[in-house]
User: Fold Methylthioribose-1-phosphate isomerase from Methylobacterium marchantiae.
Amino acid sequence: MNIDGKSFRTILPADDGASVEVIDQTRLPFAFELKRLASLDDAAVAIRTMIVRGAPLIGVTAAYGLALGLREEASDEAIERAVEMLAATRPTAINLRWALDRVAAKLREVEFSERATFAFAEAGRIAEEDVESCHAIGRHGAAILADLHQAKGRRIDVLTHCNAGWLATVDWGTALAPIYVAHETGIPVHVYVDETRPRNQGAALTAFELNAHGVPHTVIADNAGGHLMQHGKVDVCIVGSDRTTASGDVCNKIGTYLKALAASDNRVPFYAALPFSTIDWTLDDGVAQIPIEERDGREVSHLTGRLADGGLATIEVVSPGSPVANPAFDVTPARLVTGIITERGVASADAEGLLSLYPERRAAA
Ligand code: MRU
Assistant:
């Protein structure tokens, strides 16, 4: 999508053909910097430290990381080691494991000497497919926004949580893709952006990208969404997902579940937007089965921001000595989800709905 009218992607092969460049998301929104990843370790560090984040983007970065690792050693054992190392960087988003398994499975058919080049090209194909999937999610989701606009005859207010925009994918995003498509086709949309404590992906990243692309939006404190819904200020909620079960339970950034509860209580439609690579067909009980990443408590006890003089500073906000906990994701049960917007269309959040869009999974189900 655009920054000041110039089109960007979050990850691109570098000119040297032997590395990739990513947008360093730890520097946003106050600085826009590219970072070069030239090795397996670079990719693992980038994912672990959230230089890149968002389920589809970490999948693509991991695929490139595997390719970069194969330049050093391309044996079957080296592939396995690299896959395990990259998969362990972030445990919740299934896209990471999906991308690694896809590249690793194909590599077994490829000569050792060709493996690094093949893996690099395969990572590129995953990236291109991600762009196509997200654009298609955008078209299907925009139809929902167009229907709401037609029914209400005024601007449509969307609430979103975390960042499931183009910064979380290669381009377009998942939850924000319908908003970009609607915006580009002239449907008036305005987005309520949850700040998304503790890391503030909403305030820092979603606000940055909507602002840069010219989409009207307002950042709200995480606790404000329920109040806005009670007062009829939200027409629809759209969120992304890091892992969605075959039964339609949606795992996403911590706090998503509370928004779904508030949406249900106020009869506000609540959609999750996600590509096929986010569906974990092996699971049917998200609350019991999805591993939830527990992150460093410093993300809760400290905040980083810009000072009046332009410098960045990290400050402590929790009473010193108090224990903190930092679960990074939660699960919204399928019963609270109005529909799942995918690249193939909109499904009801249940096994039958998802299988009707992915009939090739019926045999395995
Ligand atoms: O911890 P993050 O920033 O990687 O979490 C991102 C999210 O929760 C997104 O909503 C999700 O990955 C969907 S991205 C299209």
